[in-house]
Amino acid sequence: MSGFDLSAILTNPEYISMLLHGIEMTFIIYIGSWTLAMTLAILLLALRVSPLRIGEPIVAAYVSYHRNVPTLVQLMLWYFGIFTLMPQGLSDWLANNNAEAIFAVIGLGLCQAAYFSEDLRSGLRSVSPGQMEAAQALGHGYASAMRFVIMPQGVRNALPPLINHSVSLFKNSSLAIVIGAPELTHAVKEIENISFRTFEIYMIGTVTYLFFSLIIMGIGAYIAMRADPARRARA
Amino acid sequence: MIHDFIAIIQDYWLLLLIGQYPNGPLGGLANTLILSALAIAFAFPVSILMALARLSKWWFLRWPMTALVYVTRGVPLLMLILWCYFVIPLWTGADVPSFLIMLVTLVIYQGAFLSEVVRAGIVSLGQGQMDAARALGHGYMGAMRFVILPQALYNMIPSMISTFVSTIKDTTLGYVINVPDLTFAASQVNNQLLTQPFQVFLILAVVYYILCWSLTYVANSVERRIARRRAGPRNPRLPAEAAPLKTITEQL
């Protein structure tokens, strides 16, 4: 093996375009599954606090399944299992439209929704019931008390775990390689196979992941700082 | 459909349980459990050393450890596995079995995460414990050994169990470097049957679910017991008083 030489990869336009496509796909999967997860998490939370008796056990079962089965196994079940049970027309359509990426988004999103909904729930639970009573004593209705008093505090409490789990989701998007989605880790493996410069390309892949993870952590810290009431009072 | 499940389990339960053991390497559920247990057993002392290094007053211990923890938090486990898979045979010059590579990766990865738990446990005890121990004549190491760590580690037991659960879930990633674990066995079964992937992978999911759910259940009951003990005998009905340590574990 020749010496360490990053430029061998960074000056090759073919490798660069493979890397950029990988990063693009990683972000499509990440943003798609994050949006799906957050939407579902809010629905799950609404179902859980709703007066419907059936809501609670359904959400509890959903969360329990997605937290106790490894994400990789969930992805495999979706792609290798459920995909084959779908009606012919639908599976043909999926196969022609990048099924790997779609199932990565579905699998990761559904799994992450369980974590996000638990984060939001524990955030809301940490707001003391006195807040609701005080808001209602001041003339707020249930909905407006929720909107102006409970929710802002609850979401602020939920921010640190939400940020942690957003970073984990970004890292977990690399699992999509197992079902063959052409994301960043996939691109790294492919370039390794062509160029044999394992050390260099792993280094580039690692630094790229680390860079974006740190950016996500930074955005999270910024949002948490903006949401801090002590800072707003000073401003 | 139900018959398919029963038939698969009847035909392949031994493969899923121990892999091809008498005729080949140990695999299946047994290997998953051994791998996770070994990983956690090694990660535990490693994490204590890492936490002490991160709390050290010497920068040459503190900085590299902090960097290592941030790197492990920011890089996917998959990437770390690929690194070890490439680097370990290169350094040792030997043909290292994938089981050992996965073990090393998990020790580094979980060690970094557990070290955050240990550090939080030490910091949450407060400076007073250390001051009191020093006033009684302990040196720094003596105070750590006899006063700080026993308390911090006792409070950490629930986090340890949930780290064990996430380690079990992490072992599935060994699939990419062909570690013969439960997921590997299931995909072997799938390759032999070819026609029933949904049934095979659903069985796999159910086995993991039962395993992780029961361990999580144990972790929760231990956590309640510890919270009660920390609350003291005077008000055993107020476990909320002793704020439980936040469980910092990685999901996977």
Automatic annotation (TrEMBL), chain A:
Keyword Transport listed: yes
Source lineage: Bacteria, Pseudomonadati, Pseudomonadota, Alphaproteobacteria, Hyphomicrobiales
TM segment ranges: 27-47, 68-86, 201-225
Listed Pfam families: BPD_transp_1
Keywords on record: Cell membrane, Membrane, Transmembrane, Transmembrane helix, Transport
Main location group: membrane
Family: Belongs to the binding-protein-dependent transport system permease family. HisMQ subfamily.
Organism expressing this protein natively: Neorhizobium huautlense
Taxonomy, superkingdom: Bacteria
ABC transmembrane type-1 domain sequence ranges: 23-220
PANTHER family reported in the protein's UniProt record: ABC TRANSPORTER PERMEASE (PTHR30614:SF47), MEMBRANE COMPONENT OF AMINO ACID ABC TRANSPORTER (PTHR30614)
Keyword match Glycosyltransferase: no
Membrane-protein topology: Multi-pass membrane protein
Compartment(s) of residence: Cell inner membrane; Cell membrane
Protein name: Polar amino acid transport system permease protein
Automatic annotation (TrEMBL), chain B:
InterPro entries referenced in this protein's UniProt entry, alphabetically: AA_ABC_transptr_permease_3TM, ArtM/GltK/GlnP/TcyL/YhdX-like, MetI-like, MetI-like_sf
SUPFAM superfamilies from the UniProt entry: MetI-like
Origin superkingdom: Bacteria
Location of this chain's protein in the cell: Cell inner membrane; Cell membrane
Residue ranges crossing the lipid bilayer per the database entry: 33-55, 67-88, 100-122, 143-165, 198-220
Residue stretches making up the ABC transmembrane type-1 domain: 29-219
Membrane topology per record: Multi-pass membrane protein
Predominant place of localization: membrane
Name of one Pfam family that matches: BPD_transp_1
Family: Belongs to the binding-protein-dependent transport system permease family. HisMQ subfamily.
Protein name (Swiss-Prot/TrEMBL): Polar amino acid transport system permease protein
Origin species: Neorhizobium huautlense
